[in-house]
Amino acid sequence: MLLRRLLLCIMMASIGKVAVGDVATGDNSADSTSTPAISIESTPTGKRVSIDDQLFAEYLTDTGRQPAVWPIHGPSGQAMTRSWPLGPQQPSEEVDHPHHESLWFSHGGVNGHDFWAVAKGEPKTHIVHKKFVRSEVLDNAATIETANDWNAGGETIITDTRRLTFGLLGDAADSPRYIDFQIKLNASEGPATFADTKEGSFGIRVSGPLTVDNKLGGKIRNSRGETDGKAWGRPAEWVDYGGPLTATSEADQPTGGVVIMCHPESFRPVPRWHVRTYGLFAANPFGGDKDFPKGEPAQGAVTLDEDETLTLNYRVVFYDGDVAADKIQKWFDAFANAEAN
């Protein structure tokens, strides 16, 4: 019996996962000073992911409209996404577009139903969290997988499974942090059409100080070299939204940013980008010439047959400091060379 218990302990250590009660945490006992510990803890509203017991991000199962990730803290602990409407309005934040809920996925036209904006009439749309499929820490990265129903007026239109993986791009606690986001959209209830509209799809609303419009130094740039308003509606492999992280004019104020990357194995791996100078930041693989600038490679509405699945894969990187475009490209190359699963 003693030998079996010893073997079991060795096996658990080898896979790098320890589950204690309702908390899953990576086993870093071999070198706790050099490798930050990532953990997941259940909360009344979802799952909380921490690094060395400091909050990184929280997965919320229901904002009243959909699942979302909020708050999200960068390597220095600064907020990376807008607080309002999920939390109190912060300095330099605008109170607009209440459907921009930190980090989320939705779309403005699914079989004629608007899941993007706050519904102005009936039927009410709601992406409903059904269950957690799994929640674990493995190889010092935290993974949360969920199943969801897209409902309009109480009727399920499509379903999805989404997998979020939270980790570090280095071995130190102040390394850039990432969230990998994979979503599988399934036409479970019959054919499903995703409309050609700018209103979508994998979105982030950055914190107020980062926005270009606040004129504190925020800047948008993409993999094609386009910046600020010129990046809107254009195709790109990645887009970066960087600048100050606090609403001050001090010379030594902290800086950082958010990058969204699209994996080459994702459906339409070079999407159009609904990225705005006021802080919206979204990869949209469905929006085409209807709303976005004309003359770009073909993209537009997509119809799935019954039970057909469409898979999208993105990585979001949260970093401190000023990062050169070639460094972001190296991050993208590493992500692109990883298997999307």
How would you summarize what this structure contains?
This protein is mainly β and 341 residues long.
Q: Can you tell me about this structure?
A:
The protein has an eight-stranded antiparallel beta sheet with strand order 8-9-10-11-20-16-15-14, with helices on one face. It has a six-stranded antiparallel beta sheet with strand order 1-2-3-4-5-6, with no helix packed on it. It has a four-stranded antiparallel beta sheet with strand order 7-13-18-17, with no helix packed on it. Strand 8 (125-138) and strand 9 (141-152) form a beta hairpin. The model is unreliable at 1-21 and 27-32 (pLDDT under 50). The protein contains two helices and 20 strands. The chain has a single domain, classed as Beta-galactosidase, Chain A, domain 5, CATH 2.70.98. It has helices spanning 2-15, 325-336; strands at residues 18-20, 23-25, 38-43, 46-51, 54-60, 68-72, 103-107, 125-138, 141-152, 155-168, 177-186, 192-194, 200-205, 219-222, 238-244, 255-262, 272-275, 280-284, 302-304, 309-320. Helix content is 8%, strand content 40%. The chain has 341 residues and is mainly beta. The two termini are 38 Å apart. This is Methane oxygenase PmoA. Keywords: Signal.
Radius of gyration: 20 Å
SSE pattern, N- to C-terminal: HEEEEEEEEEEEEEEEEEEEEH
Distance between the termini: 38 Å
The CATH topology name reads Beta-galactosidase, Chain A, domain 5
Q: What is the CATH architecture term?
A: Distorted Sandwich
Multimeric state of these chains? single chain
> Proportion of β residues?
35-45%
Q: Please mark out the parts with pLDDT under 50 across 5 or more consecutive residues, or reply none.
A: 1-21, 27-32
Helical content, roughly? under 10%
How much is the average pLDDT?
90
Class per helix and strand makeup: mainly beta
Number of strands: 20
Number of domain units: 1
- The neighbouring-strand order within the major sheet is 8-9-10-11-20-16-15-14
Largest sheet: 8 strands, antiparallel
CATH class wording = Mainly Beta
Protein name: Methane oxygenase PmoA
Keywords: Signal
Pfam family, one: DUF6807
InterPro entries: DUF6807 (IPR029475)
